[in-house]
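Good morning C.,

I know you're traveling, so I'll keep this short. The sequence:
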Amino acid sequence: MNNIRNFCIIAHIDHGKSTLADRLLEYTKTVEGKEMQAQVLDNMDLERERGITIKSHAIQMEYVFEGEKYILNLIDTPGHVDFSYEVSRSIAACEGALLIVDAAQGIQAQTISNLYMAIEHDLEIIPVVNKVDLDSAMPDEVEDQIIELLGCDRTDIIRASGKTGIGIFEILEAIVKRVPTPKGDPNAPLQCLVFDSVFNSFRGIIAYFKITNGTIRKGEKVKFFATGKEYDADEIGVLKLTMHPRNQLSTGDVGYIISGIKTSKEVKVGDTITSVANPCTERIDGFEEVKPMVFAGIYPIESEDYENLRSSLEKLQLNDASLTFQPESSLALGFGFRCGFLGLLHMEIIQERLDREFDMDVITTVPNVSYRIIDKKGEITEVHNPSGLPDPTLVEVIEEPYIRASVITTTQFIGGIMSLCLGKRGELIKQEYISGNRIELIYDIPLGEIVIDFYDKLKSISKGYASFDYHIHDFRPSKLVKLDILLNGEPVDALSTLTHVDNAYSFGKRMCEKLKELIPRQQFDIAIQAAIGAKIISRETIKAVRKDVTAKCYGGDISRKRKLLEKQKKGKKKMKQIGSVEVPQKAFLAVLKLD
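The tokens, ready to paste straight into the viewer:
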């Protein structure tokens, strides 16, 4: 046990975590020859294409230092705010963390929030300044920022480059010397923390765990705490680039277990595994339940794919525990699921994965957040989508979630960012200089305003130099109205939104104009209206595709032409009564990018 080190890598997005992990694997000879490629641990096509890490990945390395062999368990984590739940799980399974800061960009919002998470779990922090080989690197200034944030000595900070391999041996030495050994008793009853799981169509569900107490042997009977189900440990082992079976694993080890579990409901991330012969009395805590921020409906394009969609979502949930879903139905789209995501990028990734891994074609509705409705009797209900809103006459007050957002940027972009936050109904709580010309702005902003396009706008205003992090703060009463979109007088519930009174008029107008471009012309006029209750606030009309019925009628009395036109008018009227309008998938997505 004294020679085991468990550590993770935390940093802001794009500060070089995966590249540094590649070098660690190369220098410890864990991955050699033709297996070596950029972003070794990012094994999803999607991660490689976008150059981001979506899942945290565990891998074991062996390193000989001063004649002794050490086992290093590394967990590489994502940097994007939407995947911070993955980071929290990795931190719960480690004793130390490498804090990576880009020498050209300095400390950013996600760095700070991940650091606080690590400090709360009492991890040993090893600060690393990465990308020191860049021409634009300012290692001295970045070191000053780290010292100010952590209060460490300058000698504790390692200068490295994931690309050229500078400082990698110093990092390995620091991990061996500074990261504490796992605590626990190998002879105590077995306690393992499940921090991830994947679905394999041949072997069933494979759970990844870290042993906090006790020893697990192959073939032993084990029990999952949350579900109380018992299984045989058919195969246990450690995770290198592939799985390596072992006969037993002891306290401090990170490994996997295959026990022929077929249904995804029986494995929960954050659960505790114990042995049936000598069970532990309590579960391991340190796992918070995930709180989805953004809700959207996911519907199959073909209604008979409903059950396939359910099983696809269940399998995805195994691999991504922050996805939540429940069945719902919609007038326009039939049966589907109401899904909760951690953010818009997370939603986009889930859609992509459904398409690639499970071949599911789905329609996604406009994302929104959950609101609290207090009615006249004083009862509180949570509403996740506008169609679930009770009659306005029964509602006393609607409360919406507010977030505490931290934006870190340089002084030249403050004006633009402040006006963006104020335009989104934000309140400035405080602003403080972190170091030099870098400033942190702290705002309270309604989550509903952030959901659609805030992050993209922030990036474009600041030319990519502002970083953004947030957490749910509280619920506050707000003047919200339900905005309905009507096509020929029929409401399309997938397009209805809850919005603030001040934004309703402009939002409704823009929505009608956008739909006019996207809905194809029919044989009859289509009226697109935006309405609040019974009051129409905006209207656009898509003109009918008309045939020139009077072309064959030349000369003679005007009444002959009039008769033909009247006949056509009657036909159009009849068509309008029985015709229905198909709303293309593009229209649902266009609402997100109205500007």
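Safe travels,
E.
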